[in-house]
Amino acid sequence: MKKLDSCPKADGYRMPAEFEEHAGTYMIWPERPDNWRNGAKPAQKVFTEVANTIGKYEPITVCVSDAQYQNARGMLADYVRVVEMSNDDSWMRDCGATFVINDKGGLRAVDWSFNAWGGLVDGLYFPWDKDDRVASKMCELEQADRYRLDDFILEGGSIHVDGEGTAMVTEECLLSEGRNSHLTKKEIEQKLKDYLNVEKVLWVHEGIYNDETNGHIDNMANFVRPGVIALAWTDDKNDPQYKRSSEALEYLENETDAKGRKIKVEKIYTPSPVLITKEESEGVDAVDGTLPRQEGDRLAASYVNYYTGNGFVAVPVFGDPNDELAIKKLQELYPDRKIEPIYAREILLGGGNIHCITQQVPKAK
Amino acid sequence: MKKLDSCPKADGYRMPAEFEEHAGTYMIWPERPDNWRNGAKPAQKVFTEVANTIGKYEPITVCVSDAQYQNARGMLADYVRVVEMSNDDSWMRDCGATFVINDKGGLRAVDWSFNAWGGLVDGLYFPWDKDDRVASKMCELEQADRYRLDDFILEGGSIHVDGEGTAMVTEECLLSEGRNSHLTKKEIEQKLKDYLNVEKVLWVHEGIYNDETNGHIDNMANFVRPGVIALAWTDDKNDPQYKRSSEALEYLENETDAKGRKIKVEKIYTPSPVLITKEESEGVDAVDGTLPRQEGDRLAASYVNYYTGNGFVAVPVFGDPNDELAIKKLQELYPDRKIEPIYAREILLGGGNIHCITQQVPKAK
Lengths: 365, 365
Known about the structure:
The structure is a homodimer. Chain A is of the alpha/beta class. Chain A contains twelve helices and 19 strands. In chain A, the strands form six sheets. In chain A, strands 1-7-6-5 form a four-stranded mixed sheet, with helices on both faces. In chain A, a hairpin with a 2-residue loop joins strand 11 (221-225) and strand 12 (228-233). The A-B interface holds A 1-2, 66, 69-70, 73, 78, 81-86, 130, 133, 136-137, 140-141, 143 and B 1-2, 66, 69-70, 73, 78, 81-86, 130, 133, 136-137, 140-141, 143.
């Protein structure tokens, strides 16, 4: 497939919203023992549950290293497509392709540069070259030409779009020093407009407290549909999350989207703070250059890290009293989709959640 | 995709002939410097020519290690699909899946065990585990369930079928010590009948002289169509090939196929003996455990190692006076296909030729 020099906006391609129809979903199999405890075996079980669940609704492809190929193939359901793909870790949302479509059945992709959430400034591991090749390999599998940005760092989890001209990001992430500090905010916004083909970018100030991705939007807020945004929320003013969510609420409720609509915000209450246990910490290989997982560290737990697919919403739950509240709220917000709760503490322990480990391929129309 | 416990014959699947319609072709990118001279760069150019040529006629997928991914993607034409796949070398015919179809649009595959042409007895390299995983990975890409034979060694280059109930092999290869010496000839024949779904197996005695595959049939003879076989030939009685070809001719002309047809043999004259030069020998890394490539060694050059695809025949040529003769003969035998000659000395230096580096996916009907 081709590497393209133009941009989606110039060529009439746009990133559709996640809630539009999918052709399928991609994931990456977890394995690195310096991020996933106990040789990644507990995580592999949960990733399997996520993949098998998604596969009930739409085609699912799990990408896996050769070393883990047979193990993954054996654990995943027969209906999951398993494809070899070298990787540095398993965050398909962030290193994977951002697919764009036009209105003539065309499918292409944006292949952003990936630097492990901050490169040599505050990235989470080194090297990350295998991850950076993931998007181009997906493009070959999906037979999609790609727009490659060699000079612009972005992860899929740091953007959301409503499919009608509006993108949403956080300043905490997109203006972080380890990404595109050679560009001004205005220049970064222009990149988003050109490559996602949007007219307006909503700049939420910060994401979830202690989120090692520098506050990805996908853990904080999501478009339920155009004009409606789900926002991670807490009423506890002593929680450092309170200020972050309050600021976001105030900002969003006073903004309009690309179509001029006022934005309605729906609060999704976070679980009580989730801390790493001693046993969990000790299960992770201690290796120089990767983020340590220490006992007592607070994890960036949020139900907003859910994944919307054809006829379903896969939502992480934590064994918290607020699980039921989140499920109920999401069912109200998505009346036509089945809510699929998955106990996802293991994914959270690795640094993200269900949305972070999935990437949709939109249906070309 | 599923691993199946039954066999194609029991399930109504058969291996179609190579000259039947294809859905596409698979190849593997060459890279190992202990088999391909000068860091495989000259071979990569010829593999590129083969892939680009095939891609003009049918979908072509080139499988490549992560280490070579970007290099291969850059060298191959945009219309070639490039997919990551770990491998021990680049003989897709031999380690790849043998696809079978039924008459209801079904596509499955036979996944033979692969042991690098003789395993610890007289195999050509060690280890070969990556190669042995290639077929299962192809099955995922093609969405085909597979019949896996854990206890039966076979390479795709050691079999040909006419699509109407007849297979052709060599005794030299299929009865070799390094493959299935725990089985009798009759038991081996039964495996072929069960897994290729044929009624008759033609047992040519030997293949091409000095062929390191233990005389694969695909370098020696091929079905042009049911009842017609192309055979590598020489009139030089002093050439050790003469006895091999003469025996094959006599055997085949006195045999009938599964449908009871007498077999017509068409002679394809081999080129003059092709010997490894000093420069070629010195370009290959000397490594314990892989076959050395020594100056003066005779290579198993044969035009019969051609590949038949949708509307074309890709034939290796060697800069030999017999090149034109072979092209002319093949054009007579395949009047409706374009003959595509490719200068293929580099593939031959690695131990095979165009047929050895390709594997067809038949069109499900």
